[in-house]
Amino acid sequence: MTTGTAMQPDGAALPGTGSPPAASSGATFARYATNAEREHGFEPLRIEGRIPEGLRGTMYRNGPGLLTTFNQPYEHSFEGDGAVSAVRLDGLEQRATGAYHVVESEGLRFERDAGRPMFSSRAPWRTRMGNALRRRFKNNANTSILVWRDRLFALADGARPTELDAGMLTTVGETDLDGLIAQTFSAHPHDVVARSSIYNFGVRFGRKTQIDLFELPYKHRPARRLGQVELAHPVMLHDFVATERHLVFLVSPARLVLWRAALMLTPVSKLVRWSEQDGTEVIVVPIDAPRSVTRFRVDPFFQWHFAGGFERGGEIAVDLVRYPRLNSLHQTGERAARCGTYHRAIIDLARRSLTSTEVTPVGCEFPQIDPRRSGSAFRYAWCVADGAAGDSITRIDTETGKTVVYDLAASERASEPLFWPRAPDSGESDGWVLSLIYDASTHTSHVAVFDANGLQDGPVARVHFDHHVPPTFHGKWVPSPA
Ligand SMILES: [Fe+2]
């Protein structure tokens, strides 16, 4: 167990957060958000098609995979225990292996020893009261993956990282990274390639609410806390932007109701209150002068995720999937038309202004960019979007607004598409795109590999698990050493 808040929000992560769900879709995908049939170490996976020769590495995914414990389903997928899948691809040898493990947190082990729920909304009232008083909660590590200095971590917003054994995918345990992390470490760390570092934040709750800022250099220098920024209220803050010079936060008026979160009260939608009058606060922190913060408020809007951001003259460009307001948390996990669209926001620090322009009206989520351009200018973003039959994988040209689309079958659901370049010096859209796809018609999951230049032509390879993988939020492609 650990101390802190129990909130681990990741609403948009499951496809279709927002609008009213289609009934038939709900029936088709009813088995998607259920426990996987089994856990296992790396074992051969069936290859359909041909893995591109130059593609060698491992795709990691994380999401709330343990959704029923002690014969009781969690009230909401946010409560689910993290489960990490890993698929190793070797295009040269045409080999694929995969592993799947639930994160064995201290809290989950404690519950298993007790033989009953001890932390979730399914725990007895008295137990939850005791947890709240002792500031005890389960770190279910169910949101994303961090790879830093060859170490593998499962992340969730309201908690510290949980280290995993990269070779076995088994759980090592929670870590504060040698005292670096006071309370939480968000599930959205971002590389700034030009600075050879990863940046992240953690919201610290207490008498004051503040954002802790972290820098994790790729090599040599120790990780450090850059500073902190105080917030007026406890809020749900899920993602941010790191450019070559700045850390940027767009703090939506999504106030957390901490006492409800501490008591694990349901429904989850009541853990956050949309406080329209607060507006969205723009906070810009210079990485090299973290005390010189610029902050101002603009009209309210909400985002779960950013594609990236970069310096543009004296301005900062920030790409996000923007929602008019916080969409309903209780609908997370059900298929519906997305109501967030891809925007580019321009922040002018001198004028203290933010101007947001819709790039394309297509509903989308999980924007990803070429990882070589993280923190710098980019043209293309890859996302899961509304498609003809349900989900699509879509490439957005942020300069023209034009899209390239691959429509999935009606029985399929996509996860966040990950781009990887064909070669270190290849063009921005020259590479591969990988997505873990669930197929309700077979109740199995596979990794679809697309040639990024021919996305619309469909996967060049599919690598199949013989079981399904429950919905995942975020992941990472890690290339094999050359
Ligand atoms: Fe997320």
UniProtKB/TrEMBL annotation:
The UniProt record lists the keyword Iron: yes
Organism listed in the record: Sorangium cellulosum
Protein name stated in the entry: Carotenoid oxygenase
Cofactor requirements of the protein: Fe(2+)
Cofactor: record remark: Binds 1 Fe(2+) ion per subunit.
Family affiliation: Belongs to the carotenoid oxygenase family.
Single GO MF descriptor: carotenoid dioxygenase activity
Positions annotated to bind Fe cation: 188, 238, 305, 474
Any one of the GO BP annotations: carotene catabolic process
Keyword Methyltransferase attributed: no
Gene name for this UniProt entry: leu18
Keywords: Iron, Metal-binding, Oxidoreductase
Location of region: Disordered: 1-26
